[in-house]
Design a protein that fits this description.
Helix 19 (397-414) crosses helix 21 (436-474) and helix 20 packs across helix 21 (436-474). The radius of gyration is 31 Å and the shape is elongated. The chain contains 21 helices and two strands. By secondary structure, the chain is mainly alpha-helical. The longest helix is centred in the last third of the chain and has 39 residues, at 436-474. A two-stranded antiparallel ribbon has the order 1-2.
Length: 475
């Protein structure tokens, strides 16, 4: 909570490529564009409350010849920026001006959505500059800076809501409508929606406001679909965000949304899959299982990983071994997620890939079966409810049963949870019906191992007794 208070108190207006505005904490100010500077691009400056925004006529009320100039003036109106902090002085200031900007943004959205007029290239550029001035801003540090404190799951009741959202939402909607509009010429638009614009858009995924991240997700997905020239760059930029998150900060609010975009991108990968895409799986997606906040984005991550295996089943071994590398030791919630993901991967795996990874995999599953946390043991036992996995196990029972037999016996004899005890009996019965001779051999080996362990324990006790007797005589 303290971090949020500090962050909100320290918000700044960022310098933009198209101009900069600064807010004063002492007096109410509004950032305004001077039309006299429009020839050099939209610039912003501070004005006091004595200056007012001009209420312009509707676009539909002027002649076609005047619409381009009026459109530009409306863009300039939307460059005004206001404070929306939750205090009475700020909320009650510039009420008229805020409403004019809101209505102007709504009109611009309708104009683009209804194809009411063909916007000139110059006005398209000015509109993108206005959008940049509004949405590209400094965010608080708590999302992405590693302060050394433990990662704490955000409390939904304390989720951050961007105060300026009444205007910000409309600006995002305007950008979305511009990108998806059939009247938008990609060759023209890519001059304004360039690499620099995409990078700044990706920076905004660090916003704590989920509403903003949802808009960003939709917009970036549309950009990826419409601007083919940007596709490799977008994938590389997202990779870099993941690398920084995994290896440096472990703090980022938008990993889940970025993974949702990638899930759709991966679904469209052509076969045979490029080596570049396989490296992305190994170097970016699999290491994303390492950070503590994985619970916040595991569903999207698992979907992306399984997409790879479904497209190329030979990757199943790579994925399983990657999961084993990052398998949690003390985080039971995370372990349950890993077992669920293993099941999804195995459903898409073929026999040959399963055989390559089954020994280390079922050694880990055996440890999960004996977990004192009942949800981990229960989730591991649920693997035997999957017909495809049971079929793979049956084909390789000579290898798998000896690995997990001891874990099954320990559960039946000593696990505290009745549900786990019952599920273990069912799995044990399944193996017995599958191959009675193999089951009997494993039982004999287990009995012999238990007898040897008992004998070793007796010998150790005897040695201690002799040492105690010897020390007593010496005393």
């Amino acid at each position: 909570m303290l971090n949020k208070i500090i962050k909100r108190g320290q918000k700044k207006v960022p310098k933009s490529d198209f101009g900069s505005g600064h807010r004063s904490s002492g007096t109410n100010v509004v950032v305004v564009n001077h039309s006299s500077r429009s020839t050099a691009g939209i610039m912003t400056t501070n004005v006091t409350s004595s200056q007012k925004i001009e209420n312009l006529p509707m676009l539909k009320d002027v002649s076609m010849s005047d619409r381009q100039s009026l459109f530009l003036r409306k863009i300039q109106v939307c460059c005004y920026q206001f404070e929306f902090n939750n205090n009475n002085n700020t909320m009650n200031s510039f009420v008229r001006e805020k409403e004019i900007k809101r209505q102007t943004l709504v009109e611009l959205i309708d104009c683009i959505q209804c194809n009411a007029m063909k916007i000139s290239e110059g006005n398209q550029g000015e509109m993108l500059k206005m959008i940049s001035i509004n949405i590209f801003r400094c965010l608080g540090p708590t999302c992405y800076e590693n302060t050394g404190s433990e990662n704490v799951e955000p409390d939904e009741e304390e989720s951050y809501l961007e105060p300026s959202w009444p205007h910000l939402q409309l600006v995002y909607e305007l950008l979305m409508r511009y990108i998806v509009s059939t009247d938008t010429d990609t060759k023209v638009a890519k001059r304004f929606i360039d690499h620099s614009f995409v990078l700044k858009l990706l920076d905004m995924f660090e916003s704590e406001d989920q509403r903003e991240r949802e808009y960003l997700k939709m917009i970036l997905h549309r950009i990826y679909g419409k601007f083919m020239v940007h596709r490799p760059f977008i994938r590389k930029a997202i990779n870099n965000i993941f690398y920084r998150f995994v290896y440096e900060t472990e703090r980022h609010c938008g990993i889940g949304e970025l993974l949702e975009i990638l899930g759709s991108i991966i679904n469209g990968f052509a076969l045979p899959m490029k080596e570049e895409h396989k490296l992305f799986l190994v170097r970016a997606l699999i290491p994303l299982h390492k950070p503590k906040p994985i619970v916040m984005y595991h569903q999207q991550l698992s979907y992306c990983v399984v997409q790879f295996v479904e497209k190329d089943y030979k990757l199943a071994d790579t994925v399983i071994r990657g999961l084993l590398k990052y398998w949690p030791v003390t985080n039971c919630q995370k372990e349950v997620l890993f077992i669920g993901e293993v099941e999804e991967v195995l459903e898409a795996a073929q026999a040959a890939e399963f055989q390559r990874c089954m020994v280390p995999l079922f050694r880990q599953i055996a440890r999960c079966l004996n977990s004192p946390h009942f949800q981990v043991a229960e989730r591991a036992l649920f693997l035997w409810n999957n017909e495809h996995i049971v079929g793979l196990i049956a084909q390789n029972r000579n290898v798998i049963l000896p690995i997990i037999f001891e874990a099954l016996e320990k559960n039946i004899r000593s696990h505290w949870n009745q549900a786990v005890h019952g599920l273990t009996i069912n799995v044990r019965k399944m193996f017995l019906e599958m191959d009675a001779d193999l089951f009997e051999d494993c039982q004999k080996q287990y009995a012999e191992k238990a007898a040897r362990a008992t004998e070793l324990e007796k010998q150790r006790e005897l040695r201690w007794q002799r040492l105690e007797a010897a020390s007593g005589q010496g005393g």
